[in-house]
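in:
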């Protein structure tokens, strides 16, 4: 017969995996919204974030119940502790997609210089990180988690290159400043998505290996 603790722990994992799926979908949608400059899709992203916020609250309540009614030990304790942090990082990624969607809606049309910014390649790096971070959690794969953390520098470099290019474009003409600032902010949020993916992987590694990777990168 399953203990109530085991039932709650399985419920926690299920909710987290669902949260992962929702966030993964949001990242895909926001990249599409930016590429296609789709205001309608950008609006849908904000609406869908409400569901992510509801899962955030549910997961936090399950974790609180597990701590309050049980005395988890070893890996179970690490899972519950890390679940709170993973949940927080996932919720923040959802927020970042909303911020990006709002930025898109601030522009009436996509500027001619957009195609020179290499947005899709950079954004896909961030998306790959969050996808693999989610997989590392689902499959308890510390090696994948470690590999994702190693991808962060490449994403940072891509964002720095884009920011430098945007600065040059804004210097060319005052007409480019407003759109340039908006795309600069979008690239910064893309970078932060990668940061949250790395944070999730840090927690996955802690769950499985009972030690951190923070100071190894």
């Amino acid at each position: 017969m399953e203990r109530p603790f085991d039932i709650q722990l399985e419920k926690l994992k299920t909710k987290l995996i669902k949260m992962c799926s929702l966030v993964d979908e949001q990242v895909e949608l926001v990249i599409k919204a930016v590429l296609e400059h789709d205001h309608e899709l950008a609006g849908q992203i904000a609406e869908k974030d409400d569901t992510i916020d509801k899962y955030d609250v549910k997961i936090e309540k399950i974790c609180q119940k597990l701590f309050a009614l049980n005395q988890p030990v070893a890996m179970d304790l690490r899972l519950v502790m890390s679940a709170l942090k993973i949940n927080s990082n996932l919720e923040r990624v959802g927020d970042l997609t909303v911020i990006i969607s709002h930025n898109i809606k601030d522009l009436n049309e996509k500027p001619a210089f957009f195609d020179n910014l290499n947005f899709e390649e950079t954004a896909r790096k961030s998306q790959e990180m969050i996808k693999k971070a989610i997989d590392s959690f689902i499959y308890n794969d510390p090696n994948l988690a470690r590999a994702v953390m190693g991808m962060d520098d490449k994403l940072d470099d891509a964002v720095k290159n884009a920011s430098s290019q945007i600065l040059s474009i804004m210097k060319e003409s005052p007409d480019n400043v407003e759109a340039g600032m908006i795309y600069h902010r979008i690239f910064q949020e893309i970078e932060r998505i990668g940061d949250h993916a790395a944070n999730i992987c840090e927690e996955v590694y802690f769950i499985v290996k009972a030690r951190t990777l923070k100071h190894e990168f």
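note: The two ends are 44 Å apart (CA to CA).
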